[in-house]
Specification:
Chain A: This is Damage-inducible mutagenesis protein. The complex is a heterodimer of chains A (250) and B (469). By secondary structure, chain A is an alpha/beta fold. Chain A has one domain: P-loop containing nucleotide triphosphate hydrolases (Rossmann fold), CATH 3.40.50. Chain A contains nine helices and eight strands. Chain A has an eight-stranded mixed beta sheet, sandwiched between helices. In chain A, helix 5 runs parallel beside helix 6. With 469 residues, chain B is of the alpha+beta class. Chain B folds into four domains: 44 residues, 3-Layer(aba) Sandwich (MutS, DNA mismatch repair protein, domain I); 140 residues, no CATH class; 114 residues, 2-Layer Sandwich (Dna Ligase, domain 1), CATH 3.30.1490; 87 residues, no CATH class. In chain B, strands 14-15-16-17-18-19 form a six-stranded antiparallel β-barrel. Chain B has a four-stranded antiparallel beta sheet with strand order 8-11-9-10. A three-stranded mixed beta sheet of chain B has the order 2-1-3, covered by helices on one side. In chain B, a hairpin with a 4-residue loop joins strand 9 and strand 10. The termini of chain B are far apart. Classes of the chains: A alpha/beta (250), B alpha+beta (469). At the A-B interface, helix 3, helix 4, strand 3, helix 5 and strand 6 of A face helix 13, strand 12, strand 14, strand 16 and strand 17 of B.
C-alpha cells in the first residue's frame, strides 16, 4: 500500500514537472550532502530555476556567508558565471575559497538598484552560462516570476543574493517571490580547536521555502576549495546520541 | 601667428598662446601687431588646410558620439545625448576628451550644455565644464554678447547701446529688439539660451559602411522602427560580408521631420555581422527615441569596423554545444544596457595588499589561468575604506578579546593571526604602516577580518576590513 502510494506520487510529480515545461534532461545539482540532497525534491538544487539567498546574523548587510554559499553552488556548475552587482564590496579573492576561478566570472556592474534585475534577466537568456548571480535589494513577485521563466527557458540557474542597507529594506526580503527555493544562511559557532586558531567555519543553513518540501534547518561546514559543503563531524551521526554521550560524561 | 587678407588689409587670423600673452589678438592689423612685437613669426593662413584638419578631428571625435559636426573655423559640435553614460557620465566624458586632445598637442576647451548654442558660449567665453540640465539661462546670462555668433557690425551697435551681457539683451522687450536688430539676433539669443532648436548636421565619413532609408511618409511607431532596423541591419551586414568585416560600433541616426535628430550608439565586444544580434542591441533603447511628428530618415552607420574573415557558426539550438561566441553576444547586450566599461572580469595582481589584489580586464580577454595564493584565507566582502573599531587585547600582539564595531560589542571566542601585510614601498606606499591582520570569530560564529595598523606599543589602532561570514 505504502509503496504503491510512493509510486503514484512519483508519477504525479513527473506529470507536474512535464506540465511545468521543465526539461527532464537538467538534473538537479546535488550538494554532495546526503542530508540535504535526500530532502530536496529531485535530489538537489534545481537547475534552470530561481533560488534566493538571505543572510542572517550580525553583519548580515554584508552577506559574507551567503556570498560564499552562492559562489560554492556556482563553482560546482560548469561554465561561465555572470555576477550582477551594484555595490563594490565584493572581494574576488574570497570567491576562490569556494573554488570559483576568476576566469569564469564576468561581472556586470549596474549604477542603480533597478538596473540589476534587467541585467540578471539578460544573463538568464544566454544558454552558454552556468549561472547568473545577482545582488538585489528589491525583487517583486512579478520580477521574480520573470526571472524564473527566463531561467526555465534556458536552463541557466539564477542565484539571487538579497542585500539591504536599511532596516526598512531588510523587511522587504520577507515578501513573497516566485523563487523555487529560499535559503537563509547564518554563521554558527565553529568547532573548538585544541590549539588557538580557527577551524572550518560553520553555517546554519535554513531552507525557508521550497516547492515540494517543508522548511528545515541544517548545521553544515562551509564550502571547501571545490565549493562542497560538509556535515560537521561531531554532528554528522545522530546528534541525539552525541548529546546523550555528553550528558553521560558530565 | 597666421594672417590672411581682408580686402586690402592684412589681418591676424590666429595667434598662439605666447602671442596672446603679448596682447596680440585675432582681428588686429598685421602692421599693428608687428609694431607691438618686433620679432614676430608670421605665417600665411591656410583656411583650406585648417578646414581639412578640423574635419579630420571631427572624424576622430566620432569615437565619442555618432553626431559630430565640424564648426569652422575652430569648433566641434558633439551631440552626447544618450552616449555619456558609456563614458561614466558627462564630466568623465569631458575630462577624457580634453585630456586626449591635450596629449595630442591640441589646446581645447569644452563644455556640455542643454543647447548647442549654450555649449558654444560656455566653452569659448565661460568657464567650460558641464552646465547642469535646466540651468542654461543662468549659465549664459553673465556672458558677453560676443557669444551670440552675430555679425561684427551688429555687435558694435549693441556695444554702443551699452548692452554688454546676454542677460541685458534677454531682459529687453522682444518686439523692439527684433525690429531694431533683425530676426537673426533674436534667433541667436534664443539658441544660446536654449529656447530655440539648432540642428547639428552629423558628419558621416565617406568611406564608412552605412545603410540608409528615407520615408515618403514619416514613421513614428516603435514597431515600425524595429522592422526598419532589422532591414537596415540586414543590408549593412550584406555589405560587411562583401568587405569581409564585422562591426565593433554601430550608430543609429534618426532624422525627424522637424530637423531634430536622435541618435543611439551600441558597441560590440568583438567584430560581428549578425543582423539579428545587432538589432537586438538596439531593442531596449529604441523606446528612448522620441519620434515627435515622425521620423523621415534613418541611417545605420558602422562607425568602427574590424576584419572578420570567418563566417560565424550559429551555436544556438545545436544542443549541448556551448560556444564562447554566445558569451560575446551576451557581453554586447549587457554592455548596451550599462556601458561596456561596467562589464569586466577581475584578474589577480601580484600583490598582498587587499585593495590592490585585483585588476579589471576585458570580459572576453583570454583566460589568464592565474589565481591568488590559495593558502591565504581572504574574506568575501571587503569594507572600503576600513572602518575603525574599538578593540581590546589581553596581551600586546594578541588578537582582541572583544571589539565594538558600529556600536555593537562582539566577544571574540576564537582567532587566528596575526598575518602581517607590509606596505609596498615600490608602489608608493610610503606613509602607510604594516598591518597585522586577524581573523576573529565571535560568540555567534560571525567571522571578521580586522587589522591593527601598528604594534600596540606604538599606538596601533584597530580597523574592520572584511567579512568572512
Amino acid at each position: 500500500m505504502h509503496a504503491g502510494r510512493q509510486d503514484r506520487l512519483a508519477a504525479l510529480r513527473l506529470q507536474i514537472a512535464r506540465l511545468d515545461g521543465r526539461s527532464q534532461k537538467t538534473k538537479p545539482l546535488p550538494f554532495g550532502l546526503k542530508a540535504l540532497d535526500s530532502y530536496l525534491p529531485g535530489g538537489g538544487l534545481a537547475r534552470g530555476a530561481l533560488h534566493e539567498m538571505i543572510e542572517a546574523g550580525h553583519a548580515s548587510e554584508f552577506a559574507g556567508c551567503t556570498t560564499l554559499f552562492t559562489a560554492g553552488i556556482a563553482a560546482r556548475l560548469k561554465g561561465p558565471v555572470l555576477w550582477c552587482l551594484t555595490r563594490r564590496d565584493l572581494f574576488a579573492p574570497g570567491l576562490l575559497r569556494a573554488g570559483l576561478h576568476p576566469d569564469r566570472v564576468i561581472y556586470a556592474e549596474a549604477e542603480r538598484e533597478r538596473e540589476v534585475l534587467p541585467l540578471i534577466e539578460e544573463g538568464l537568456r544566454e544558454k552558454g552560462l552556468a549561472a547568473v548571480v545577482g545582488e538585489v535589494t528589491r525583487m517583486s513577485l512579478i520580477a521574480s516570476r520573470r526571472l524564473q521563466l527566463a531561467a526555465e527557458a534556458t536552463g541557466v540557474t539564477a542565484l539571487v543574493i538579497r542585500r539591504w542597507w536599511t532596516l526598512a529594506e531588510k523587511d522587504l526580503v520577507h515578501l513573497p517571490t516566485a523563487a523555487v527555493t529560499r535559503w537563509r544562511i547564518a554563521p554558527a559557532p565553529s568547532e573548538l580547536m585544541p590549539a588557538p586558531g580557527l577551524g572550518r567555519e560553520r553555517w546554519q543553513v535554513e531552507l525557508l521555502r521550497c516547492r515540494g518540501a517543508e522548511p528545515r534547518t541544517w548545521i553544515v561546514e562551509a564550502c571547501d576549495a571545490k565549493g562542497r559543503l560538509a556535515l560537521p563531524a561531531d554532528l554528522a551521526d545522530r546528534p541525539d546520541q552525541a548529546a546523550d554521550r555528553r550528558a553521560a560524561a558530565s | 601667428m597666421t594672417v590672411h587678407n581682408v580686402g586690402s588689409r592684412r589681418v591676424v587670423r590666429a595667434v598662439c598662446a605666447a602671442a596672446q600673452e603679448l596682447s596680440l589678438h585675432v582681428g588686429m592689423a598685421l602692421a599693428q601687431a608687428q609694431a607691438l612685437v618686433s620679432n614676430l613669426h608670421v605665417a600665411e593662413a591656410t583656411p583650406e588646410e585648417d578646414d581639412a584638419s578640423l574635419r579630420e578631428l571631427a572624424r576622430w571625435a566620432i569615437n565619442y558620439s555618432p553626431v559630430v559636426s565640424p564648426d569652422p573655423p575652430d569648433g566641434l559640435w558633439i551631440d552626447i545625448a544618450g552616449v555619456a553614460h558609456l563614458f561614466g557620465g558627462e564630466e568623465e566624458l569631458l575630462r577624457d576628451l580634453t585630456s586626449r586632445l591635450t596629449r595630442q598637442g591640441i589646446a581645447a576647451k569644452a563644455a556640455v550644455a542643454d543647447a548647442p548654442g549654450a555649449a558654444w558660449a560656455v566653452a569659448r567665453y565661460g568657464a567650460g565644464g558641464v552646465v547642469p540640465a535646466g540651468r542654461t539661462v543662468d549659465a549664459v546670462a553673465s556672458l558677453s554678447i560676443r557669444v551670440l555668433r552675430i555679425p561684427v557690425d551688429k555687435l558694435a551697435t549693441l556695444h554702443r547701446l551699452g548692452i554688454e551681457r546676454i542677460g541685458q539683451l534677454a531682459a529687453m522687450p522682444r518686439a523692439p529688439l527684433v525690429r531694431r536688430f533683425g530676426r537673426d539676433v533674436a534667433l541667436r539669443l534664443d539658441q544660446t539660451m536654449g529656447h530655440a532648436f539648432e540642428p547639428i548636421n552629423p558628419l558621416i565619413p565617406k568611406d564608412s559602411v552605412r545603410a540608409a532609408i528615407a520615408f515618403a511618409e514619416p514613421i513614428g511607431r516603435i514597431e515600425d522602427l524595429k522592422s526598419v532596423m532589422l532591414r537596415l541591419a540586414k543590408d549593412l551586414c550584406r555589405q560587411l560580408e562583401r568587405r569581409g568585416e564585422g562591426v565593433r560600433r554601430l550608430d543609429l541616426l534618426c532624422q525627424r521631420v522637424d530637423q531634430k535628430s536622435a541618435c543611439l550608439r551600441v558597441g560590440t565586444s568583438k567584430a560581428n555581422r549578425d543582423a539579428a544580434h545587432l538589432t537586438k542591441l538596439f531593442d531596449e533603447r529604441l523606446q528612448t527615441i522620441d519620434p515627435g511628428f515622425g521620423i523621415e530618415e534613418i541611417v545605420l552607420v558602422a562607425s568602427k569596423v574590424e576584419p572578420l574573415a570567418e563566417t560565424q557558426v550559429q551555436a544556438r539550438g545545436l544542443g549541448d554545444e556551448r560556444e564562447e561566441a554566445d558569451i560575446g553576444q551576451l557581453v554586447d547586450r549587457l554592455g548596451a544596457r550599462v556601458g561596456m566599461r561596467k562589464i569586466y572580469r577581475l584578474a589577480p595582481v601580484q600583490s598582498l595588499v587587499p585593495e590592490r589584489m585585483t585588476r579589471r580586464i576585458l570580459p572576453l580577454a583570454p583566460p589568464t589561468g592565474a589565481v591568488w595564493p590559495e593558502n591565504l584565507p581572504r574574506p568575501t566582502r571587503l569594507l572600503d575604506p576600513p572602518e575603525p573599531v574599538v578593540a581590546t587585547a589581553l596581551l600586546p600582539d594578541h588578537p582582541p578579546r572583544f571589539f565594538i564595531w558600529r556600536k555593537v560589542k562582539h566577544n571574540v571566542v576564537k582567532a587566528d593571526g596575526p598575518e602581517r601585510i607590509t606596505p609596498e614601498w615600490w608602489k608608493g606606499d610610503r606613509n602607510s604602516a604594516a598591518r597585522d591582520y586577524y581573523r576573529v570569530e565571535t560568540e555567534q560564529g560571525g567571522r571578521f577580518w580586522i587589522f591593527r595598523d601598528a604594534p600596540t606599543a606604538e599606538g596601533g589602532r584597530w580597523w574592520m576590513h572584511g567579512f568572512f561570514a
